[in-house]
Amino acid sequence: PVIFQNIIFSLAISLFYLLTRRLVSPAIALVSSLLYALEPFTALISGQIMTEPLFTSFFVTALLLFVLYIKEKKNYLLYLATTLLALSALTRPVAFYLGIIIPLAIILTRASIKKTVIAGLLAGSLYLAILSPWLIFITAKVHTLDFSSLSSFDLYAFHGKHFDEWRKKHNPAITDTLPLLDLSVINNTFDARPISLLKSVGLNYIKTHFSEYLFYHFLRLPNLYTDSGYASILNGMPGVPFYFGWVEGGVLEELI
Question: CB within 8 A of 253, min separation 6: which ones?
């Protein structure tokens, strides 16, 4: 499986270069491909059995194909991009909600209304056809309408928990904290119904303090740009002043 994963990742890098060359100069395409291939975290996990390398391969290629479709207006590019986007969603559920890219790409081609509707119906049908086996399974066997049952768990144990810790850090006197729930239900069953309580409590907590939650996300936004594989290398190098600086939180974590 690891060898297969490495082959997929290598092919994805090659395809990334070839597709990027159709959009920008060969020099920019080469530099972009090298940065993509040598990104430390991606390179590290490519040798392990994880979903990230496959997701990255599918998703980045899909995005490039969507851009090429907008530029060249060839429908086969749309259908290839849609297929890879669906495979991305099956690999990492977060891509499911990025299906909005499909109608946006079609609209941006500025084709006639008739061609836009036909392309939208065909691409949408293809997207749902690829995802339908999973949608049927998770509805019938896991008993949830969420694309991934783990999203309910994450809403409570990740988003709600970190937000709660941030609130208590800045105001230790608060009493309306996140209620403590038993998380063992996530390990004891594939039935998502017991997990629904986690989603309900986490969502209610965030909605109750929604303005604070938005402010919390705004403060953490810079971390989106400072938390990367390259940053991790700098963060771990002795003598490099980034360790207590901006990389991977650092000063930002102290500020927020």
Answer: none
